[in-house]
Amino acid sequence: MTAFADLTSPQVAELLSGTRTPVLLLPVGAVEPHGPHGPLGTDEVISAGMCGRAAERLSGDPDVRVLVLPTLNYGVTRMGAAFPGAVTVSESTLHALVTEVCGALVAQGFTRIVVVNNHFEPAHVTTLRKAAAEAGVTYLDLVRRHNAARLTEEFRSGSCHAGRYETSLVLADRPDLVDTDTAATLPPVPVDLPAAMAEGKADFVAMGMDRAYCGDPAGASVAEGQSTFDTLTDLLVETIRGVA
Ligand SMILES: [Zn+2]
After folding, report:
1. What's the average model confidence in pLDDT over 42-68?
2. Which terminus has fewer CB within 10 Å in the chain: N or C?
């Protein structure tokens, strides 16, 4: 069993008094358009997918006990506001949710918590970094250079919204959620998202993403998704070892 919310209260008490160090993972997603082919919940599928894999990989570990918290599935997501289905919350709401959820757990003795996020809109990432620091927990920062260097070329290029990288990950976990017929018809849309944002472009349409994707979704595959999940799981397991 790796889901925190599946435990009973006495089982949580046992966790705290056991010999294995408990580490809790908080997956964070967003509800926003991911092209005409991918689900709004793409980022949640990726965050929960890597957390579940890390917990599974460490399930028999003698030193740590990893449990996955319920996903925090709303984020700061304004860039896709022109498209149906984008649901944003404010920075203050996200900050409060993260600090209060982590604070409630820390107060009970769960001092080792890793926030795992796969929605990379700068306002969202900045809020999570601040909230994790304030709560005294760890934020696995996938866009930092040393982490990004281990991910795919498309991810590193910054052209990574609903393209080959993200679509492959969803295909590996929830193939039923990808419209593969539509994805196969989509031409590559190379956009350097960090550069476009640095130029002051504030939404997908201004960045030339008139169908809410960039990169190359037609190039996505289950094999790439599985391989990327392996790497994301490696990164997360290393982080867990670092905090335990
Ligand atoms: Zn995404």
Report:
1. 97
2. N
Token duo for residue 43: 């980022």
Least confident of 127-131, 135-139, 144-148, 156-160: 156-160
CA 35 to centroid of chain Cα atoms:
18
User: Can you give the residue range of the structural domain that contains 142?
Assistant: 4-243
pLDDT band for position 1 (cuts 50, 70, 90): confident
Total domain count for the chain?
A: 1
Task: Give the Å distance between the CA of 244 and the centre of ligand 1.
Answer: 29
The CATH code of the domain that includes 21 is 3.40.50.10310
If you measure from the C-alpha of residue 3 to the centroid of ligand 1, how many angstroms do you get, rounded to a whole number? Answer: 23
CB 116 within 8 A of CB 235: no
Regarding pTM above 0.90, the answer is yes
Scanning 139-221, the segments in alpha helix (DSSP H) are: 145-148, 153-157, 164-173, 180-184, 193-198
